[in-house]
């Protein structure tokens, strides 16, 4: 608690114990605190310089605690005055910033990037990410193919969070052109909805990239949206869609099931596709399986869950935290 007035934990503990005693020596305090005698002696030396403890006149080896209001009151009041000055300065700067922001032109809040410069710019922004990259996907992709986006794998390895929302239609395309399974197995959090309203990449909620013209237009273009009301709206849009989207699972096949009554990694993937609303035919195409195999595996999951219908399977899977 007294770290706020510049005391280290050992110094605060020594003062706190001494305050409860009439007087005490370094040895006595060390025994009570369970600390090394040298550490307690150093703490008492600091406290004495801070005028928080004094030596007793009859025995210089013994220390007495000074009342807290006298020991720390002056330092606390000084820090309060400094904090008030800082708060006033921050208020002035905030007011000036808001005034300047209101005077800025749209050119300072939005940047337009054209053609082949879009892909490298997205990679550059992703590589500068500090915390998170969010994406809303829509077919066809713009600027670059998923296989060309090496920045995502680099970011995932570096601990950057990736959250992506996909339209259900991309799960029906054979061959996984969006490399969904690979991305999810490397740590991407992916969710699926019926249809995505736009394409977007957003980095650290500080800048968003939104295409203006289609990727197949003579000269595609994209907007880079910087902190503004528009960026706030894009953040809110992403979070609203994310909240209502269905998680997509793609556990590594090498990972063993969590228990005897838990689905395999591939069955969990199949279950998440089923939850996303895909037909058996679309699931078969996505997993590279036959329709008969998909139906057999769904039936196996129904038996594993101890239910009779697919609807009951989804409910039981959620109840058992399979999804």
Strand content: 5-15%
Question: Rg to the nearest angstrom?
Answer: 31 Å
- Molecular shape: elongated
* Secondary structure tally: strands: 11
**What's the tally of helices?**
12
Q: The CATH topology of the largest domain is what?
A: Endonuclease, Chain A
Q: What are the segments in which pLDDT stays under 50 over at least 5 consecutive residues?
A: 252-259
CATH superfamily of the largest domain: Endonuclease Chain A
Q: Decide which structural class fits the backbone.
A: alpha+beta
Please identify, by name, the CATH architecture of the largest domain: 2-Layer Sandwich
CATH class of the largest domain: Alpha Beta
Question: How many separate structural domains?
Answer: 3
First-last Cα distance = 43 Å
Mean pLDDT: 81
Structure characterization notes:
This protein folds into 3 domains: 1-103, Winged helix-like DNA-binding domain superfamily/Winged helix DNA-binding domain (Arc Repressor Mutant, subunit A), CATH 1.10.10; 111-248, 2-Layer Sandwich (Endonuclease, Chain A), CATH 3.30.870.10; 265-319, Winged helix-like DNA-binding domain superfamily/Winged helix DNA-binding domain (Arc Repressor Mutant, subunit A, Orthogonal Bundle). The protein is built from 12 helices and 11 strands. It has helices at residues 9-19, 26-33, 37-49, 68-103, 118-127, 150-157, 180-185, 229-244, 265-275, 280-287, 291-305, 310-319; strands at 24-25, 53-55, 62-65, 110-114, 132-136, 161-167, 189-193, 200-203, 207-211, 221-225, 246-248. The chain has an 8-stranded mixed β-sheet, with helices on both faces. α2 crosses α3 (37-49). The longest helix is centred in the N-terminal third of the chain and has 36 residues, at 68-103. It holds the Pfam family TrmB. It comes from Actinocatenispora thailandica. InterPro entries: Sig_transdc_resp-reg_C-effctor (IPR016032), TrmB-like (IPR051797), Tscrpt_reg_LuxR_C (IPR000792), Tscrpt_reg_TrmB_N (IPR002831), WH-like_DNA-bd_sf (IPR036388), WH_DNA-bd_sf (IPR036390).
